[in-house]
Amino acid sequence: MKKTVFLGALTVAGLAAGASAAATLDDVKARGKLNCGVATGVPGFAAPDANGRWEGFDVSVCRAVAAAVLGDSDAVEFVPTTGKTRFTALSSGEIDMLARNTTWTLSRDVDLKFTFVGVNYYDGQGFMVPKDLGVSSAKELDGATVCIQTGTTTELNLAEFFRANNMSYEPVPIETQAEALQQYNAGACDVYTTDASGLAAARSTFEDPTSSVILPEIISKEPLGPLVRHGDNEWGDIVRWTLNALIAAEEFGITSTNIGELSAAAGDNPEVNRLLGTEGNLGEMLGLDAGWAKAAIMSGGNYGEVFEKNIGENTPIGLARGLNAQWRDGGLIYSPPFR
User: Fold this and answer.
1) Of 329, 339, 336, 326, which Cα lies nearest the Cα of 251?
2) Burial status of residue 189 (CB atoms within 10 A of its CB: 0-12, 13-18, 19 or more)
3) Global pTM exceeds 0.85
4) Contact 241, 31 (CB under 8 A)
5) DSSP assignment of 117-137, as one string?
6) What is the CB-side half-sphere exposure of residue 304 using CA atoms within 13 A?
7) Are 161 and 138 in contact (CB under 8 A)?
8) Confidence (pLDDT) at 51
């Protein structure tokens, strides 16, 4: 009898979990748009253009998910969040997913009960200083005033780096990149520290980008990627495999320009066929139609196209692929198989 009760409890729990998992997908479809949390404004990653349209590397993930689920990459409500507000917005249900330069850590995954669906940018924390400060190493920053975003891993890494090197600093707390740059350019802090990609994005907005230097030290590992709430397993699968579709598309040479031709009929590569929906039933497994991945890729291109358009070496941000190159090119970007 105890066994029966126990199994019955497991069944109820399983049904409850299933209902929770389906909730976000159902809500997004009923609403007709995806609510996606992004940064308040980081050039190249997430920022509105002159016409108010959100663009950027992280924004492209939101648009790809909207395309996969709703068939429309513009069916997105972008919700700007700070380091302090982003997790509350996600846990409360204000947003369906967060795509905001957020570091995957154990405590965020376990204690805050979020699910990171993958890494779309491998980064590390760095330091930017005015060139006329005459500093060439972060180990020369003893006694410096440092602009630092509160509620971030950056804040903790900074304290640990200075303690490990027996140095002191005076923090200048800020909440947004815009506020940080205002304080930095006004001379309220000697140093601005955040992810190295964020420093490159910030420097690109300066009237004279050469007036500041990014110091050589990278003091942390910052695997950045989109996340969803725990329990939304079906929704987590959709966001995860949408990101993987962009990554796999680059590996297989599927681009925004040739995808129409490749998806018109099944080709010689079974995995490409499964990805593009001309073979198998992967879309059905996700609760989506067969063309979900094709729609996601068409929304802004494959991972490489998204990178080059928004933050690559030919943009003002000027980032090299580095660790974010495909695995066959010596990087860490890698999708599990589509099978």
Assistant:
1) 326
2) buried
3) yes
4) no
5) ---SEEE-EEEEEEGGG---S
6) 16
7) yes
8) 94
